[in-house]
């Protein structure tokens, strides 16, 4: 079977990220285009582009192609009633619930999705992508990228909160029998 190459890119920065708020379906910051456009030029025209359904992923994906294919499996982790709240607000209102959620990947925010459920969803999506040869680019969220890394590295769920994914970060994977992390050469400084 021909190989699958999958490049995951985190959406560009939002105001929620700057303010340490759990995201809603907000637009990107005003200055995101120039920064993201420089990343987009590294990819070949005609690349098959997927994205999550949220506005921030769709906006970022349009830098790579005019009509990205929205995939529900790439949606952000469902944070339920905590969506839109800042970490400070949660620490003040529900400190025990927040700490329990951060410590136990099987706990979900009220009316939300647990990290374990997210990781299951992403594992299923990766399994499906393994049957789709060629190079794919998927614009998604930090939580989804963390879940993909755990799956590929077969790391325990407890490792989830040890990973930081910055806006526009890139994760390269390949599949030829099994998923592998691809570390790419970076351009020389200066």
Automatic annotation (TrEMBL):
InterPro entries: His_Pase_superF_clade-1 (IPR013078), His_PPase_superfam (IPR029033). Gene3D superfamilies: Phosphoglycerate mutase-like. It comes from the Bacteria. SUPFAM superfamilies: Phosphoglycerate mutase-like (SSF53254). SMART domains: PGAM. This is Broad specificity phosphatase PhoE.
């Amino acid at each position: 079977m021909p190989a699958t190459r999958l490049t995951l890119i985190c959406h560009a920065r939002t105001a929620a990220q700057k303010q340490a708020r759990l995201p809603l379906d907000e637009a990107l910051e005003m200055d995101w285009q120039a920064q993201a456009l420089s990343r987009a030029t590294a990819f070949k025209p005609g690349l098959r582009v997927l994205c999550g359904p949220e506005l921030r992923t769709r906006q970022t994906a349009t830098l790579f192609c005019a009509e990205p294919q929205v995939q529900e499996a790439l949606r952000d982790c469902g944070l339920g009633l905590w969506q839109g709240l800042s970490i400070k607000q949660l620490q003040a209102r529900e400190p025990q619930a927040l700490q329990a959620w951060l410590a136990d990947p099987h706990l979900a925010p009220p009316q939300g999705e647990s990290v374990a459920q997210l990781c299951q969803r992403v594992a299923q999506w990766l399994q499906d992508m393994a049957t789709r040869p060629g190079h794919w680019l998927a614009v998604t969220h930090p939580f989804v990228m963390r879940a993909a890394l755990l799956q590929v590295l077969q790391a325990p769920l407890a490792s989830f909160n040890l990973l930081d994914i910055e806006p526009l970060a890139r994760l390269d994977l390949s599949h030829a029998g099994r998923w592998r992390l691809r570390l790419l050469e970076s351009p020389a400084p200066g």
